[in-house]
Amino acid sequence: MTLRPILIHPDPRLKKLCAPVPDLSDALRKLADDMLETMYDAPGIGLAAPQIGTLERLIVLDCVKETGEAPRPLIMFNPEVVASSDDKSVYEEGCLSIPEQYADVERPAEVSVRWIDRDGNEQQEDFAGLWATCVQHEIDHLNGKLFIDYLTPLKRQLITRKMQKLKRDRARV
Ligand SMILES: [Zn+2]
């Protein structure tokens, strides 16, 4: 497996609508495995293909955070929210493409998601808690949407300026 570099906001590839995956291939499965490896290494609980510059509808996640609990890596091709609760919940979100910036985002507390798994089988499952927040955050990435798009323009600009500075600093090293 190969670690892939994660794009940092602002980057035009993070603002694009990603295309549905037409057919699973070994290359796509390898990409998904690389994404999981990259996510665990970061470390993070979710990663979307556009974050490594691939504009296809693929996300990976694992929101098991307790040490000692078995990991639960999920690979989702063409994930789709098919139902959401009226109940909302607020989580302090972060993003591997926006390092060290966190903000409260309100989203439906529970969602039902349908996707194609690594073996090409259709799956559907209800998610709640951190899983619900994470899967919605990752699906947003496939539509060119970042968690900072839920914030006020002022807050968003502040974070974007910090990221521009971070990228300049990193380029200098
Ligand atoms: Zn993210």
Q: Give, in spatial order, the strands making up the sheet with the most strands.
A: 1-2-3-6-7
The unreliable regions are none
Number of domain modules: 1
CATH topology descriptor:
Peptide Deformylase
**CATH superfamily membership:** Peptide deformylase
Report the average pLDDT across residues.
96
Question: C-alpha Rg, in Å?
Answer: 16 Å
Binned strand content: 25-35%
Q: How many DSSP-defined strands?
A: 7
The ligands found in this model are: zinc ion
Q: What is the ordering of alpha helices and beta strands?
A: HEEEEEEEHH
- CATH C-level name: Alpha Beta
Largest sheet: 5 strands, antiparallel
Report on the structure:
The protein is an alpha+beta fold and 173 residues long. The protein has a single domain (12-172), classed as Peptide Deformylase (Alpha-Beta Complex), CATH 3.90.45.10. 29% of the residues lie in helices and 29% in strands. The chain is built from three helices and seven strands. The strands form two sheets. A five-stranded antiparallel beta sheet has the order 1-2-3-6-7. The longest helix has 20 residues, at 153-172. It catalyses: N-terminal N-formyl-L-methionyl-[peptide] + H2O = N-terminal L-methionyl-[peptide] + formate. Its cofactor is Fe(2+). Fe cation binds at residues 95, 137, 141. Belongs to the polypeptide deformylase family. Keywords: Hydrolase, Iron, Metal-binding, Protein biosynthesis.
